[in-house]
Amino acid sequence: MIHPVRHLEDANILAQAIVNTIPEPFLVLDARFRVMTASRSFYETFKVAPEQTEGRMLYSLGDGQWDIPALHMLLETIIPDKVAMDGFEAEHDFPTIGRRTMLLNARKVIYEDSDAVTILLAFQDVTERRAIEQEKEAIQLQSDDLIRQKQVLLEEMRHRVANSLQIIASILLLKARAVSSEETRRHLQDAHQRVMSVAAVQQHLHAIEGVDEIEVGSYLRKLCAGLSESMIGKDQPVSINVLSHKGMIPSAKAVSLGLIVTELVINALKYAFPNQKADALILVTYEIDESDWKLTVSDNGVGKEMGSAPASDAGLGTTIVKALSKQLGARIDLVSSRTGLTISVTRATFTSRMPQAT
């Protein structure tokens, strides 16, 4: 059975004991904001004595550190209308403990049988928390600044690469027009084509958000759409379709895949359709099976024997595709017939489930 406190003196002793058990600084104020009692933690934290505190106005404690206009307004205007005040922050150079940041919370106590009002005022030292927050904010600002600098440098690098590739391509094209040797002209035109392929891949990677990884299907579709716009003429319309599983790939891998696709699509456009064909189609597929993948470029043209490129051109294209495939740890397979050519670049063992151009 719980026995009620019967005497006022006992109640005061109990109240003071409760106040002293609160680990943070704590004041009990009367309706005029005069200190009725303070917790042991208050005296220890602010290095003051009871005789310097009890019976004095809150605003005159210490060197007047709590004589803050905003605190006046909160306690004298808000507290009479409301029963609580939470999170009032005050920063001050205290006489003995130095500069501290305190968070104040107040509660108004109203008694049923009396008009008296008591205000409970708790202090929470958040100096270290605010210092950590400021440090984190400074680090974040520094990090954001470094990221912005990185983006500026990256944009500048991309711009310079694009300009350099354009200049090289223009020089090769001018040289091809100036030389008299047909073989030399063909070599220069072929070199121009390869430079433009690299430029196309670089442009499409730049257009895709995200530097570390990109969505492969969207990337290949945009790349092939660009090739279609720049290389397919009205005299021989060819459709370029892309089918791809959804998946993210590293940007370094995307560069190699983009160059392979560009090389194979350009070769198909040049050699698969020597004669006009109503339903001419180049199909690019990309399949994913966990860490394995398969890239296939197929056409419904005349096949390799009838549409073969000159030996020198085929040699350069084959060398590029082989070198890039080797970098990716993949093998190359070629299937040719009178109904078209299919070239696959496969990493590990992979059984295709996607259609081919027919």
Helices and strands: which structural class? alpha+beta
Number of domains: 3
Amount of helix: 40-55%
Largest sheet: 5 strands, antiparallel
Number of helices: 9
The helix/strand series, from N terminus to C terminus, equals HEEHHEEEHHEHEEHEEHHEE
The appropriate CATH architecture of the largest domain is 2-Layer Sandwich
Numbering strands along the chain, what is their spatial order in the largest sheet?
2-1-5-4-3
* Silhouette: rod-shaped
CATH class value of the largest domain: Alpha Beta
Task: Tell me the CATH superfamily of the largest domain.
Answer: Histidine kinase-like ATPase, C-terminal domain
Number of strands: 12
Q: Any idea of the CATH topology of the largest domain?
A: Heat Shock Protein 90
Chain-averaged pLDDT: 80
